[in-house]
Amino acid sequence: MATPATDAAKKPMDLLRFATAGSVDDGKSTLIGRLLYDSKSIFEDQIEAVERTSESRGDDYVDLSLLTDGLRSEREQGITIDVAYRYFATPTRKFIIADTPGHIQYTRNMVTGASTADLGLVLVDARNGLTEQSRRHAVLLSLLRVPHLVLCVNKMDLVGYDQEIFKKIHAEFTSFATKLNIPDLQIIPISALAGDNVVNRSENMDWYEGPSLMHHLEHVHVASDRDMIDVRFPVQYVVRPKSDEHHDYRGYAGRVAGGVLKKGDEVVVLPSGMTSKIAGIDLFDTEVDQAFPPMSVTVRLEDDVDVSRGDMIARVNNAPTPTQDIDAMVCWMTTAPLKPRQKLAIKHTTRTGRVLVKDIQYRLDINTLHRDQEAGELGLNEIGRVQLRVTVPLLADPYSKNRTTGSFILIDEATGVTVGAGMING
User: Is residue 400 within 8 Å of residue 426, measured between CB atoms?
Assistant: First the structure.
């Protein structure tokens, strides 16, 4: 007989993706190292190597930042220059950390790391309070519609665990956050070096009544952040097995981008507009009753309608309107600037096409939120509002409604390099 424990073991664990951002020396690498260390997510030989390195450098403590600053060149400079993905798990949840660099010249790296995050974690040094970089990180996370934000006020041990210092930073950031679109904000005083409020509650800050960082990460509710109403299923691949056994099988593989697909639902295939009903939904070798984001499944239809890669399956009375005119916020990612009349390739979900830059409406100063309407181009790491004309109709939603169908990348046709990332305005 199955016990509750074995039932729990069989249940797939929830996944939380979170992006970290902080200025140099705010202690981001130490914090991630502390999360890995205190959650027992690293091997003994890794711990021993870090202890040896710390001792050889004359440190009187174990430098946990060595667990994450993997590149020797970064370690020597004391900076993080690229997005590094770390994986760990607790009995409650699995985690993917996008460790993003904080410098303004790496804005594109932060956009990349945060674009798929459920939660953004911004670090500030309690001694310095909010800086221009802290505000810029919060603005970027807000712009990318990351639904949950945690501000970690680090190095509280270096200010004597002073409640008044924390309260001042708390008030200043809360006031700033009212200008941004941040649905859920948690502010936690921590010491990554000493471990206060990281995994375990701190005895040094008994005045703080909120959760530890790990407790918050384990329990923040993210399932409702995904759009479960508007069915969006971009077709990635048409499945037609060649074997005699499955000669009449025809399915459409892809990842559910929105809504809940159920057997028997009436659906429309876009852009053709042909309608049918869902005959079945397959997950690997098993048929399932329904599919929802972010499941990857194969959908079978009752009718033999023409469906190919780049098409989208949606509900008949709730489908995106195909459009060739796109109004978007674009983060530019290469040294040659983005200019009007430029021609590029575009990839939106599973659909590709070519695009003409019609106009740059303004460049956004992500430190002050000022809109420079005189800007005639976007340079490396700059963000601006851009009007585009696409050669093929895109089946898009506003980014505020669906982060998958509301985003795209721009590609240099000559080199195949991704040069821009866009978020479609409503």
Answer: yes
What pLDDT digit, counting tens, does each position of 372-386 carry?
999 999 998 899 999
Phi and psi torsions of 379, nearest 5°: -95, 180
Q: Which superfamily is assigned to 323-424 in CATH?
A: Translation factors (2.40.30.10)
**Domains of the chain, residue spans:** 12-225, 233-315, 323-424
Which CATH superfamily is 233-315 part of? Translation factors (2.40.30.10)
Contacts of 71 (CB under 8 A, 6+ apart): 81, 82
Buried b (16+ CB within 10 A) or exposed e, 184-223: eebbbbbbbbbbbbbbebbeebeebeebbbbbbbbebebe
pLDDT tens column, 160-198: 999 999 999 999 999 999 888 888 999 999 998 888 999
Place of tokens 């009436």: 266
Tell me whether domains 12-225 and 323-424 share a fold: no
Written as six digits, the tokens of 392 are: 């093929």
Strands 323-332 and 351-364: unpaired
Which 3-state string (H, E, C) describes 42-77?
CCHHHHHHHHHHHHHCCCCCCCHHHHCCCCHHHHHH
CATH fold for the domain made of 12-225: Rossmann fold (3.40.50)
* Cα diameter, the chain: 74
Q: How many CB atoms lie within 10 A of CB 141?
A: 26
Element (H, E) at 172: helix 163-177
Residue 367 has pLDDT above 60, yes or no: yes
